Every structure is written in structure tokens, then in C-alpha cells.
Amino acid sequence: MDQSTTVYVGLDVHKDSIDIALADAARDSEVRHLGTVAGGTDAVSKAMRRLVSAGHRLYIVYEAGPCGYALQRHFAGLGWRCEVVAPSSIPRPPGERVKTDRRDAMKLARLARVGELTPVRVPDEADEALRDLVRARDDAVREQRNARHRLKALLLRNAIAYAGRSAWTAAHLRWLAGVKMEHAAQQIAFQEYLHAVSESGARITRLEHALRDALPTWTLAPVVAALQALRGVQLIAAVTLVAEIQDFWRFTNPRQLMAYLGLVPGENSSGARRRLGAITKAGNAPARRMLVEIAHLYRHPARVSPVIARRQVNLPKTVTDIAWSAQTRLCARFRRLAARRVPHNKIVVAIARELAGFVWAIAREVTPAPSTPQRQQ
Under a CB-based contact definition with an 8 Å cutoff, are residues 116 and 91 in contact? Predict the structure, then answer.
């Protein structure tokens, strides 16, 4: 790219407005605010075309946010270079107390000129569509959990207790169907809570059926099948991990994936003192939660159960070998840490962190390497 004609464009994007700032390639040139246009693609594209018609090459950046990747895809379709940057990578001086849309756009243009921004990976539209479906199911599960808590709280306040062993089984649901409250108003509240529980369950079932229907035509379906060789990784868990991470080749080693998932400890070291804290919880939260849930199962001895064996049918031997190595290593480590009386939650997080490395190895085993090297995003 000819640096002399390049203009770095910073966009502060909102639903109803977009602030535009420009920075010429010369480091000593002033960053200027071009103006504010309406949200969407039409008004900002008109402003960008004026710059292109003046002979400039555009390098456009904006922060990842609720407006998604529509602008990036639109600009890419027009042949303009546009990158979506991670908000966490934008330097913010501790003494900065003034924040406006204009200042944010100018800061993006200035940082893009000096190469201080980290772009995020923009998923394909098909990958993003499946990820939206996965997150819709996750929202339905959360709604079901909240609805159950509200229903149980109502029963607890009225001293109505279930005598059975486990809640939300078929027997428990039959018992709930026969519960009668003392007052009619309470009965209405109870029925509404019960309906919310059943409706959220039906929504989860519909979304899981939709996931299974969409999976065969997805380009990443082989990765989903391969990850199910691991203990505890069934269909929903595998789809969640692949939909959230998608491109495993952007991580050159498993430690980068662990850091992306926020499973590495924070550090506050100075001089000879080295102090590690809790995990950073940076990056992708849904994938991190899924790995932590799976890690609980490695407290049992290593074993290829009939269920796991059925999932491993037709998978490459290299994949099943990695899955068995994961079992033997992680189950043994779980026992060692438990014998040292390490708190259970710390053990689970440590197992989840190492499990991410085995997920990385299997995913790269079944997907071809990209033709051009990718940097971590």
C-alpha cells in the first residue's frame, strides 16, 4: 500500500450516528474530525467515496461492539480495507477523564496510523449465524434456570416442600402439576411460573433440534465430530466450543488459546516477587464456561465408556489417541491436586485450562492449515 496516499479512518460507531476522524500517513500530521453522519452503511459510505474519489486509499478501523460486523463486510465488498479492533487493546491513559465520540474516533485513527491496534477475527456469515443459534440456546438455558429459581422460591415462601430426592425429574413435574395454593391469586402466580419453566424447556428443545439440523451443512462440522472424542464433550458442548472459537489456526500454540479463553492466571510481579492471582476471565466467556463444566467429569478414573466409544467411531486414530491422552493426563492430575487438598474450584479451572490445549490439538488435526499465516487476534 502506498503510504503517501493512505488515509487512516477511525469510526466511532453507534446505532444512530457514526463519528469519522482522519489521519494522514505522515506521523506529524494532525488528526482531524471529519464529521458525524447517520448510522448504517449509506451515509458513511458516501463520506468514504469522497475520500476515494480524491485519490486516497482507505484503512478504516472501528471498535467491536453491539453493531456487529455489518460495516466491515460492507466496506470489504466495496474493496476497502476495514478492520474491527478489540476494545481491550486500545490504550487508555489513567489520567484521561474526558470521553466523547469525537475523541474516540480521533484516537482510533491515530492508533491505526502507528499500528497500535489489535484486530479481531471477523467470522463468516454462516459461522456467525450458527454462533447466534448457539447463544440463543444458552440464553434459553439461563431463562429456564431463572424460572426454576423463581418457582422454587414461591414454594419455599409458602412452606410447600417436595419429598422426593431430585428436582425437575418426571416425578417432580407430576408433583408440581398437582400443587394447589391456598389463595387464588397465589395459584395464578404459581401457574405462570410453572408455565415459564415448561416454555423455556420447550424453547431449548426447539433450538437444539435447529442446531442438529444446521450442523451437517456447516463447514466446521468435522471439528464438532472430532471434539466429541473427548470425555464430557457431547454434541452441544462441541458445537458451542467450535462456534465460539471457530478458527483454531489463529493460535500458534495452545497457550494462546488458553489466554484467549481467560483461563490463565493474572500476574502482579515486581522485582524478585512473583505473585499470581485469579484467572483473567478475558476473552470468550461461553467457551470458558463450557470447558469448566466439562472439567468436572475428569474427577473419575480414565475410561472409554460405551458412550464415548460410539462417538469415536469413524474418527481418525490420531484424534482418539489425543482424546485418550487427555483422559489419562487430566484424570491423574485431578487426583493429584485433590490429594494435595487444593480447593475444588481451583482444580476444575486447572483441568479446564489443560483441556483447552487438547481441544486445540484435535481441532488442528482435522482442519487443514491456512494457505497464509495468520496472527493471533
Answer: yes
Cα separation, 34 vs 22, in Å, equals 7
In the 8-state DSSP scheme, what is residue 16?
Answer: S
Please name the residue that has the C-alpha cell 417432580. Answer: 172
DSSP lists the bridge partners of residue 83 as 61
- Residue 20 gets the label, from left (phi > 0), alpha (psi -120 to 50) or beta, of beta
Compute the distance between CA of residue 163 and CA of residue 172 in angstroms, rounded to an integer: 9
User: Which of 277, 135, 278, 274 shows the shortest CA–CA distance to 204?
Assistant: 135
Residue 244: CB atoms within 10 Å: 20
6-57 residue pLDDT tens:
999 999 999 999 999 999 988 888 999 999 999 999 999 999 999 999 989 9
HEC profile for 142-154? HHHHHHHHHHHHH
Residues 6+ apart with CB under 8 A from 281: 262, 288
Residue 202 C-alpha cell reads as: 420447550
Are the CB atoms for 261 and 356 separated by under 8 Å? yes
For residue 322, which of 373, 287, 365 has the smallest C-alpha distance?
365
What DSSP character marks residue 194?
H
Closest by CA to 225, choosing from 133, 324, 303, 312, is 312
DSSP-based three-state secondary structure for 23: strand
- Distance, in Å, from the CA atom of 371 to the CA atom of 368, rounded to the nearest integer, reads 9
DSSP 302: P
User: For strand 57-63 and strand 32-38, is the pairing parallel, antiparallel, or unpaired?
Assistant: unpaired
Reported as a single tens digit per residue, the pLDDT across 74-128 is 999 999 999 999 988 888 888 888 889 999 999 999 999 999 998 999 999 999 9
Classify residue 147 by burial, with Cβ atoms within 10 Å: 0-12, 13-18, 19+.
buried
What is the spatial distance between Cα 226 and Cα 253, in angstroms, rounded to a whole number? 19
Record the cell numbers describing residue 72, joined without a space.
466491515
Q: Where are the beta strands (DSSP E) in the chain?
A: 6-13, 17-24, 32-38, 57-63, 81-85, 265-267, 276-279
